[in-house]
Protein: Ubiquitin carboxyl-terminal hydrolase
Organism: Cyprinus carpio
Amino acid sequence: MTEVNEILMSVLSTIRVPRPGDRVHKDECAFSFASPESDGGLYVCMNSFLGFGSKYVERHHVKTGQRAYLHITRTRKTQKEDDNNSGSGDPPKKKPTRLAIGIEGGFDVEQEQYEEEVKVVLFPDRQEVTSEDLASMPDVVRERVSLSMAGLLAADSVSHTLQVQQWDGEVRQESKHAAELKQLDNGIKIPPCGWKCEVCDLQENLWMNLTDGKVLCGRRYFDGSGGNNHALLHYQQTGYPLAVKLGTITPDGADVYSYDEDDMVLDSKLPEHLSHFGIDMMTMEKTERTMTELEIAVNQRVGEWEVIQESGTTLRPLWGPGLTGMKNLGNSCYLNSVMQVLFTIPDFQTKYVSNIDKVFNEAPSDPTQDFKTQVAKLGYGLLSGEYSKPAPDPGDDPSSSTEPRGDQVGIAPRMFKALVGRGHPEFSTNRQQDAQEFLLHFINMVEVMMMTFSCSVCFTLFTFAFTHFAFFCVVQRNCRSGMNPSEAFRFLVEEKIVCQQSQKAKYTQRVDYIVQLPVPMDQATNMEELQEAERRREEAESSGAPPSAAPRAQIPFAACLAALSEPETLTDFWSSAVQAKTTATKTTRFASFPDHLVIQIKKFTFGLDWVPKKLDVSIDVPDTLDLSSLRAMGQQPGEELLPEVAPLPLVTPDAEVKAPVLDDSTVSQLCEMGFPLEACRKAVYYTGNTGIDAAMNWVMGHMEDPDFSAPLVLPGSSSAPGTTPTESLPEEHLVTIVSMGFSRDQATRALRATNNVLERAVDWIFSHLDDLESMDVSEGGRSEGGSEASREPPPGPRVRDGTGKYELFAFISHMGTSTMCGHYVCHIKKDQQWVIFNDQKVCASEKPPKDLGYLYFYRRVVE
């Protein structure tokens, strides 16, 4: 013990007591998904408060020299069958009564199901110090170590804070209609029980309109349950806004819904409004579940969906490498599905998992905030098989079924979700999101992190210009971070616009990662069945009877592909050839084919009332795909191109170049739309002040031009405004631009053209690649020698190209009425066997619903 005393005394200055605001990682390892419940427990550094599993704590000790760690182990308690008698003197677990987290009556974090053991471990010899051992140590040691231990145990962990941020879904606002609600004196009195819908005789989910006392059934849910929408239809016919749910009225209040405000609301005059129809609020008792209780019931059944997850068949659970489930962190199934698919792609496996030791060794002091580290951690967790184990039996709800459930221990991607969602208005929340939007968001982050930045300004410029086509021409030449896995999806799209009057063409290219496939509903093969169903629905609606289930539209995949490739007619197109508005056609083709092709079925659209809706369609998506016929051919022999600019007036050497007279109102209107000022000035200039429509067409047709936002240079002028002498160039700006991979000559020219403004200078380079093609960009940042003839023009974005033949290997499906709700699962083909990944459940798929997918993933067939 004397030796331990001496060691603690020597490292006492490194043992910190957590303060408010400190990030304490006591639930999850920074490099793995080890936790206090894992074998070996979790070691929390008593200086940085980072957590490490037994596999990685030694690495941290060697790298940092830190010796004192708080070792936390948790053992699951045995659950008792009788919830009202825990056997330990603890009160029974309460059921949630509010749709809330972190407040009284809301969802609790289940901490009471574990027994916890803590002790201090001193490295490298792993000497252990318990709380009892501290009692015999010097006061200064005992006080500091005890305070640190107590502080770590009392502090909310980062994952706990993210999971249980105080949130109350029950907070409601006072209705704007409550104070002066009109109530009809029609003599209607509502009995205290025995209600039924006045249209369809339904006896549950009933709502009473607070204006006229009509008792009608509520909305129909997406699964066909609920009511028949008669209360909603009554509002649409009368405009009476407020309704109360019968069966929820108690002396404490009731569920009140405002159709006009489209939300649950408060009615401060509810007792008065109810008494108007003979209802004494103080004597009423609750007989139906409130809307909050219904939502809670849904939230407690996450993952138990009956559609798309093959629930009608007995699924065989799978375990092992590449078959690891992911815990749903509360509407995180979109993230789970996307990442499961991405880590079946060799590029992502090679980049993040094959080199995981190198990634971890190069990790910064706080690996929880490092993108590459957390992606590698997630990839290894999914592919290693270490966490692909059956989940322990919860014990408090024994199942009568003898079939295995398929649930796994799996991994909980809390650190990863927090990192990739940080600062994003949607992905930082616990709301459901669009899987396609998250896929693009993640690819964007990969692209950003592939660059080497010398300063925060460079990083900001990169993210600002990420979608600029010309920018890629520089990025892909100067990226120094090795293989970019997002290149597996990247391809070029060629858009060809042909002026129908002059027959001259314009070609542009853009970078894309996903093919968005339209759904032509008018091409359904069962159109007669759909029309008959619509006729029956209208009849049922007019008679007040519940409608029958609608059939699903059967759409041929070939029809979707044809809708994608057919020419689009552009009306009011401003043609630079005829200097007037005319009609043009736009054709879209593949300028390159990626190694892996992602196809999004555009199922989500807007109705005539601008309410988002999901198309219920079945599409015969093929297992193999040949897109060779959609290869772009480029400019054809004898084909003339549209002039890039409007005809310019003749300028003689002795003529004075005067500033053009531009329509300031048109320029202002374009600027208010968010376009760069110089682009707006050029649009007005090159369309001859002919108005906003012509200028807008010019803008839309030239957005991909390299010099789109460059200053307007008049004919006869030698340079753009803002030229500065060489001696005034700030050396620090030159160094910054050169460190990004550009040459010193390029940096000098850019700064001269932009009045030495660094951000504008870099953007100027991106916009003037054609002007700079004689300047090679070398790794060292210098212009390399060589004859003019030996220099090649700057290449475009780095894309992989090959045959347009593909095979399906994965798809992500969505269930629900919109991307903002519902549930996502994915199916992945592994060793010729389809596997369903439904959060923590991983099973062999018997009937993969390939016709109901949302995102489809194809890989190139190598001939």
